[in-house]
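Appendix B. Chain record.
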Amino acid sequence: MPAVSPIDPISAPAPALGPPRLPARPELLAPAGDWECARAAVENGADAIYFGLERFNARMRAKNFTQADLPALMEFLHRRGVRGYVTFNTLVFTSELADAEDYLRAIIAAGVDAAIVQDVGICRLIRALSPNFPIHTSTQLTVTSAAGVDFARDLGAQLVVLARENSIAEIEKIQLAQSETSPFGAGSPYPASSSPLPLEVFVHGALCVAYSGQCLTSESLGGRSANRGECAQACRLPYDLISDGQKVDLGDRRYLLSPQDLAGLDVLPDLVRAGVASLKIEGRLKSAEYVASITRVYRQALDKICGGQSPELSAKNKSFAAPSPPTLDSQLSALSPSADSSAHYELQMAFSRGQYTGWFRGINNQELAHGRFGTKRGVFLGAITRVSGESITFRPAAPVKPGDGIVFDAGNPAEREEGGRIYQVEPARDASGDTMLRFGHGDINWSRVRAGQRVWKTNDPALDRDLRATFEGEKIRFQRPITLEVHGHAGTPLTLIARDAHGHVAQNTSTILLAPADKQPLTTERLRDQLGRLGGTPFSLGELHNRLEGDVILPVSELNRLRRELAASLEQLATQPPRWQLSSGTSVLSTFNLQPPTPPSAAPSTPELIIVVRSLEQLDAALTCPGIATVYCEFENPKHYRDAVQKFRTWQAESVSVSASDSQVSTLSSQLPPPPSAATVWVAPPRITTPGGEWIFKQVPP
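Structure tokens predicted for this chain:
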């Protein structure tokens, strides 16, 4: 029987959390709204998936998983070398904390690899329940700077999902702020940190028009809170634009609030260079075909960037090992995803409202939201040049074939759009390049179709079949490499050691002793051929280190047995859930102060005057009012804050001098509002502060 190595880390309780290490190869994190999507992600190369349960997740409209699913789901994921993260990313009310605690206990006990959390209180509740269960702060926590990362660290987080609005340049600055030696020098606004946190970014999928997804529009218009997992997607609707009381003619651009979808494929090398630890694909409401397609495209691109070369023989140590990788810069410069039209085609066919690099390259709001539509379109084919009978003529910008689904863009949200499946394609017969498409009789109302309309390819049945073939059924299609070591010499058993990427180690020894070989010894080539037959398992053979001494031989049947049993042992080790520490006994909520603040027993005897000003001119007017207690400055241009604070201090000093000479102060002070010396001034910084924005705080003199 195979013997499990004693250094296997999962057979013991999970260790206390230490400073995380930033991986050289980013994790690819895929969405899973149900079991089929989970299989699609795993079989197409996801390193991890994220999913929601029945409550407390930001996609309540998804099918989602249940608490009862957790043990089987985590066993499936871990068996396949994939991590699973639960989305616990909604705001939680005090009345729900008891249920939230029950959910968290089930999540931790099931061996889930981390929880993605938005609510600060839930972060603290998790830490009260478990000192070492990993917390990943959600993008909805709106971490946009190094200070935000420090805040997440103080909450006990092990990874930070940055806001989608961060550019690559800003991500690099946040990373630099976490380095052991800050490159900005002494007094830098980016101090060095002793425990850098891995950073995760969204790399593909839908974008919210609200900052970091914190939208109140859905709640305001329809009573469905986006921060409670019930977004009604009000941003995807057409709107009118009113300027100076007049309705503006928008033409076909009425989807004013609907951003294009994020597609970070073209900037993937820059994200790797920036040291991003995890690349997240949006889409828990999307189909399994979408999950398979997007995961597959980004898996292939990442492997190309990070060096997924085939193993080569190293004669020096008789081992098959991946060659020494080229420098990262040379790999990145050699990669040009934008030239891969097939990858972009697949991304657009999976789901596309138009694709854009989002904020990765900086702010360009005109490109972010084109305004023409808010629903899936697919691949742009061209514009109709002629309508004839039940056919159209156009010059296609992408391949088309019978069976493909297309739609004719009406250019008006109030107008019904026509479309259907192509029945016949007649290629161009002259230099014009025009192609004729014919459709089934009665499928399309041709009175609604006219020359000039844009044509979009919305469905490719052949691609869908190809995608479904990657995950349907129980067959294992995506295998993860393991490292094998072979030890022994004549007269001893052969020892075989296997290691996977997660640190699991299994060991097995032959029941037959190695014998001197007169011919056909166990060369590295023969070992690789025999031990690499891992079909039907979650593993493929990566590096093989041949440590055999001398020319020896072992029956092939014994090698096959060793391989089968070792793979089974490694697979069994992988399925054992991490044993996170978990508080037992009574609820930990008793340790929290859950009582609301005590209201004042009575109204203040003297009303206070609190003023908000939005310009220096308003501040001048406000300072003529008697009895000011507080002034809030909320300026469009923060550069004026320094002048505002200085103006307030001057007024305060002059007012104190006048008050001191007023003989009535001593007799009437009990009836007067607070003196100017007690007044305070405050400035409102931007709600969002990105790297480089710290200068605003320096505008306020002490």
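Further analysis of this model is presented in Appendix C.
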